[in-house]
Structure formats: C-alpha cells, structure tokens
Design goal:
This protein is an alpha+beta fold. Strands 3-2-1-4-5-7-6-8 form an eight-stranded mixed sheet. A hairpin with an 8-residue loop joins strand 6 and strand 7. The structure holds zinc ion.
Length: 202
C-alpha cells in the first residue's frame, strides 16, 4: 500500500511547515495541561512510525514499525488490522490507514513529553452482529457505528484522563471524538473515528 509522502494528515498541517526550528524534546517538558496537535511541524509527520498497542480483551501486545519513507509497510499493516479485529466475532477487516495515523500521532505526540505508553485498544473493527449484540447488552454503540467499517477505535492511555486524551485526539481535527467517562480503577475511554469532525459524551 502506498500513501502520499506525508501521509493523509499532512495537508492540514502544511501551513505550519515554515514554523521555527523544532525544539528538542527536553525543552517541551513539563507537559501542558492540554495537548494541541496543530503545533506539530512537518518533521513530525515524515519520521518512521512505530505504534505500540495492547489489546486488553485478548492479552495481545505488539510494537510495530508500520510506516516509513511515506509508505505503509504492508506486513505490519496486516498485523495491526489483526490486532484491531473483532475479538468477539473473530473477524478481521481493513482498518482505515488514517485511523492508524491518528492513533500513532497521539502516541508519538505524548512520547515527546516522556510519556511512552502503549495505546490500549478496547474496541476496533466490529462485525454488524457484534455491534448489534453490544446495543442489545446496553453497551454504548451506534447503530451505524464506524467501527463496522474499520474507521473507529475505542482507546485508552493509562496516564491520560479522558479529558486530556480526548482533547489531544480532537486536536488532530481528523474525525469524531466521543468521551466515555467512567469511574473505577481503569476509568473510561475515548472513541476516535475518521468520520465527520464532531464530539460527544457517552
Ligand atoms: Zn467507539
């Protein structure tokens, strides 16, 4: 699979390309209260992309270089699609590369502040049957969920609150963000998709 040299997010960021030289990561600490991905310059988007993800439902964990020199690495892409599969329905589907880019961007952005943590995937692709089952069980899920087309993921990063993680994903301005606040030791999660730009609380 071949994408443009700068990936699909780059056009929105091209206006920042002429910004001042990038500060060294050390200069960026401490982390701000809210992250803003629009501050990223072009350098960020052309570097090789390694995504570190875990799947609590299956206990899987992987760290994969999946994009470099402007191209998705197909074997790693297939592995990521498998990891984001429907764990309950046991089906794998193609995941929107733009969604992977948003997940990677989120992780890579906070890594600049020394926060290097795997991204937990609570839900990725869902078969229509799995999605219907969730609705029946009273779990928040939309009838026409973008999970069914490989364009959505429910995520968590243990060190970030829903507010901060959602704010960061939202700052990419590449799709929808749902905030699912929950009490309990693990807290809630963020729904990220590559549909229309919108936010909601669920
Ligand atoms: Zn979701």
């Amino acid at each position: 699979m071949r994408l443009s040299a700068l990936g699909v997010l780059a056009p929105a960021l091209s206006t920042t390309a002429a910004a001042a030289p990038q500060a060294a990561p050390a200069d960026l600490t401490p982390p701000p209260d809210l992250f803003d991905a629009q501050l990223l310059d072009l350098d960020f988007w052309v570097k090789p992309r390694t995504l570190s993800v875990t799947r609590p439902a299956s206990g899987e964990r992987t760290k994969l270089l999946y994009w470099k020199d402007g191209e998705v690495i197909d074997s790693a892409y297939q592995e990521l699609c498998h990891l984001l599969r429907d764990v309950n329905g046991r089906e794998t589907a193609p995941i929107d590369p733009k969604l992977l880019e948003m997940l990677w961007g989120t992780q890579a952005f906070i890594a600049r502040y020394g926060l290097e943590q795997p991204l937990e995937i609570l839900s990725g692709y869902r078969t229509p049957a799995s999605n219907a089952r969730l609705i029946e069980a009273g779990v928040p899920a939309a009838r026409k969920s973008l999970h069914m087309s490989g364009k959505a993921a429910d995520i968590r990063i243990s060190s970030l609150s829903e507010e901060v993680l959602g704010g960061l994903v939202r700052s990419f301005r590449q799709g929808g963000v749902g905030y699912y606040y929950r009490s309990g030791p693990k807290g809630g999660w963020i729904h990220a998709d590559t549909g229309l730009n919108r936010t909601w609380k669920g």
